[in-house]
Amino acid sequence: MREPPTGKTRKVHPYQWLWEPLETDPTFLLRPMFGGRAAYLDGKLMLYFSAKEEPWRGVLVCTDREHHASLLAEFSVLAPHPILPKWLYISESSDSFERVAERMVALARRRDPRLGVNSRPTIPITWIPISSPAVSGGADPPRPRRVPIPSARTSTAQERV
To answer: Strands, E, within the chain: which ranges?
Structure first.
């Protein structure tokens, strides 16, 4: 059996200092998303931290478009993200990045109603063979494939025919 690597250090995200004040909140959840880190409070996606190349180097403020005007009036350095315009963005290259990013974290912590979007619930998927009578009409294909059937259905394969 292989020995675990010794002395291996874990890479620290460059914006970790920003989400650390949120870590004491019992509803805080930090999840990897598209190479960055998504911060959730009360099940709502509040902030997204990305340290890739521009335009993915900074903090995205997860908000509905109806709140853009209010946030833009208060924080003039925020702008709709060039690729994901439904969210506002502050680039690390901005002179006021640290100050505004800290303010966004503070607003999230206070549950400012302008911040946060409900994430879509994931539907568990149950797989059944395509050769099932419910899918193929009784004929078996040469190579069975699988098709997704949402598990929310409680009926059996025979009832779906």
So the answer is: 29-33, 36-41, 44-51, 57-61, 79-80, 88-91, 117-118, 125-129, 146-150
Buried b (16+ CB within 10 A) or exposed e, 95-131: eebeebbeebbebbbeebeebbeeeeeeeeeeeeeeb
pLDDT digits (tens, 9 = 90+) for 81-136: 999 999 999 999 999 999 999 999 999 999 999 999 997 655 555 555 555 555 55
* pLDDT 10s digits, 128-151: 555 555 555 555 555 555 656 665
- Identify residue 1 by its one-letter amino acid code: M
The answer to whether the pTM exceeds 0.90 is: no
Domain ranges of the chain: 16-118, 125-160
The residues near 119 (Cβ < 8 Å, ≥ 6 apart) are: 40, 43, 44, 45
Domain 16-118 has CATH 3.40.1350: no
